[in-house]
Amino acid sequence: MTKSQTVNPNSARLLSLDFFRGATVAAMILVNNPGSWGHIYAPLEHAEWNGCTPTDLVFPFFLFIVGVSIAYAMGSKKEDPAIHSKIILKAFKRALILFGLGLFLSLFPKVFTDPVDAFQHVRIPGVLQRIAVVFFIASILFLKNSEKNIFRILILILAVYWALMTFVPVPGTGYANLEKETNLGAWLDRSLLTEAHLWKSAKTWDPEGILSTLPAIATGLFGVLVGAYLRRKDRDAATKVTWLFCAGTAAIFLGLLWDLQFPINKALWTSSYVLYTGGLATMILALCYWIIDVQQYNKFTRPFVVYGVNAITVFFLSGLIPRILNMIKLNRADGSEISLQTWLYAPYTEYFSPINASLAWAISFVLFWLIILWIMYNRKIIIKV
């Protein structure tokens, strides 16, 4: 028996998947927590509009991983329709918790100081909210459909979204377009959510808006298909990796080709963006799978695995802690007040240039959580949301 045949396709967890998830959430925390939003290296910023930076890969990679995880967590239960209702109910409860955590981050800390205003202006869309919706819908589609049907649904979603965004005239504008404030998705967000409940940096559109959640579901289904393929018993590991690299390359090529007419755009979550990022995620996971699970080179994985097994927990807390640090005020010698976060960041600005101080703070934040998560991992503390 060759080494490529020793991997158990029905294993509940893939070490490579935990590694990929951990690396993704660590990158998410890195880009979300610079010392200064005015001083950030270009690769750690989102593209201004069209295009794709390394930072624009983080969120779709996570949704892709959600899809792969669905295939592994529910794959053995899919063949028993009698328990589907129980699984869907469990998925619904988990989605509600994720959505609620996202809303809490949007409300905090104002919900404790001015609750009326907090709820009147709470941002309803968000990262955790989108994860919740994608997880729930992708779970149902996985349980109730064959892999071929899931593939057809994925293609249909991408085609319908492309048609809506490029052919349907936008009310009030009169023509279809892909601009920030006048595209169909932005109009729908303003119509259903009103400006009070949208992304505060724009107020007229939201990068996690209603319509763009549709192709985000396709990203989750992309991961579902890859996870289902990895679980197959009739393929050895080498064959799986080869086909995944081929599929990933094809998706990237098609995404770049479609980009010529429907630009790769994270904020709009365009169909070309789904193919491009899904292809890259497929190739990265295939490489991790081959190196870590098949060839068993895994001594380097621990720092990211500890992030991966508590991914949602650390993402939520890493969004909460900076808000708390900004709430805590310290008195200066001159009688003025500064936040604890500003006080902690001050030494970085003394020893580094502004942009390097900002990066050093972000790296320190990632390392801080690494220590916490390492302790949790050693004590077998895994908080399942």
Automatic annotation (TrEMBL):
The chain crosses the membrane at residues 12-31, 57-74, 95-112, 124-143, 150-170, 209-230, 242-261, 273-292, 304-325, 358-377. Keywords: Acyltransferase, Membrane, Transferase, Transmembrane, Transmembrane helix. It comes from the Bacteria. The keyword Signal does not apply. GO terms for molecular function: acyltransferase activity. Residues 13-235 form the Heparan-alpha-glucosaminide N-acetyltransferase catalytic domain. Pfam families: HGSNAT_cat (PF07786). InterPro entries: HGSNAT_cat (IPR012429). The keyword Membrane applies. PANTHER family: LD22376P. This is Putative acyltransferase. The lineage of its organism: Bacteria, Pseudomonadati, Bacteroidota, Sphingobacteriia, Sphingobacteriales.
